[in-house]
Design a protein that fits this description.
The chain is mainly alpha-helical. It has 18 helices and two strands.
Length: 371
């Protein structure tokens, strides 16, 4: 009887190991190969992937050997930042496939098709599942990564607060942040005798984060700044993951993963602390956080799901706004500095329309050179 029991356990263990092996083989070999075969049958090719890593090694090799062009004579910065895409476009055309680990990605450089997909077929395609898997600590299940009913619920709550009339109402908040930024520059210039070398990229990131903190957290602005700084640290920690895309690496307690998990917990605790304080004070402010809170309250969600909804959407609001705004502002200022005639025309228009007053939404709409 004892020998029979041992044989049963051995058989079950062997069956479990074989089952795990076949699942891994399907996920790592069969499924990626099948997807690539389907794309090849449609005339789409791409760089051959290696096992587990996909094309990650090509990314790193291409970036390490690329010539960095720092001139402002061309707007084609993509060739310096993403040299592997430039190389693959030249070799495989405007549409090709590549791999991040076992994740197959279709690259498309045809604006008309991209526009059609994003405006006509986006609900059919949905958001890529790997985005939520790999960026879960950073984005959760907010509007940037969710699909279906979850996405529809998020959009129903967030979209009305981002209509143009609502954004125009935030001009006062933006002005406060601009004054803070300009005062810091003036202080630095005065401290250095009238001339100062200011690297504005970090200032622009802080500025955009400052605006979002005021718009999102209202009177809890100082805590919003703390959350913003933690989110930036979390974003940096996520970007340092060396083997991002390799199956299972996000679960292994490497230093980068541990840092990301700790920051994710800090961000969650800070946001929920602000929420708790606002509930205790029974405050009803007209900010983005209050809108998210009311949306969660009117939903049939458990307490844990409600907390996740609030935390994930607060993180999404920050991350969707601060980096894109900062990069656009830096690029705009760089172009103005490189083209003094553009700068003169913009300054002339601002002086003419504003007449020494602080710009508001109506004034900005009249500015043809600025827009």
């Amino acid at each position: 009887m004892e020998a029979f029991t041992v044989k049963v356990f051995i058989s079950l263990a062997l069956a479990g190991v074989l089952g795990l092996f076949f699942r891994l083989y399907n996920a790592l070999v069969v499924k990626p190969k099948k997807l690539r075969s389907i794309l090849r049958s449609q005339g789409i090719s791409g760089p051959p992937p290696s096992f587990l890593l996909g094309n990650i090694r090509e990314f790193k090799k291409s970036q390490s050997t690329a010539v960095k062009d720092t001139s402002t004579d061309t707007h084609n910065c993509a060739a310096a930042l993403f040299p592997f895409f430039e190389q693959w476009r030249n070799k495989y055309g405007q549409v090709f496939m590549f791999s991040l680990g076992n994740t197959q990605i279709l690259y498309m450089n045809q604006p008309d098709i991209v526009r059609e997909i994003t405006t006509c077929s986006s609900l059919d395609f949905g958001k890529p599942s790997y985005q939520q898997r790999e960026l879960g600590p950073l984005l959760g299940q907010g509007i940037l990564t969710s699909n279906g009913a979850v996405w529809a619920h998020n959009r129903k709550i967030l979209a009305p607060e981002l209509y143009m009339e609502k954004v125009k109402g935030m001009i006062g908040l933006i002005t406060e942040s601009v004054d803070t930024l300009l005062n810091s520059w003036r202080s630095k210039i005065e401290a250095e005798g009238g001339i100062a070398d200011i690297r504005i990229d970090e200032h622009m990131r802080s500025f955009s984060g400052d605006v979002i903190s005021r718009a999102c957290f209202g009177s809890s602005y100082t805590k919003g700044v703390q959350i913003f700084l933690k989110l930036r640290a979390l974003q940096e920690a996520m970007s340092k993951k060396i083997f991002s895309g390799i199956p299972g690496m996000r679960y292994i307690p490497t230093k980068h993963n541990r840092d990301a998990w700790a920051l994710q917990k800090d961000v969650r605790n800070l946001i929920l602390k602000v929420v708790s304080e606002r509930k205790e004070l029974a405050a009803h402010e007209k900010d983005l956080l209050q809108m998210v809170l009311e949306g969660a309250k009117n939903s049939d969600l458990s307490q844990e799901a409600t907390d996740n909804f609030i935390v994930d959407n607060c993180k999404n609001i920050y991350l969707a706004g601060y980096e894109t705004t900062a990069v656009s502002a830096v690029w705009c200022l760089m172009l103005l500095a490189a083209n003094p005639d553009w700068q003169a025309r913009v300054r002339e228009e601002v002086v003419e329309i504003c007449e020494g007053r602080t710009p508001d939404g109506d004034m900005v709409r009249k500015m043809k050179q600025v827009l």
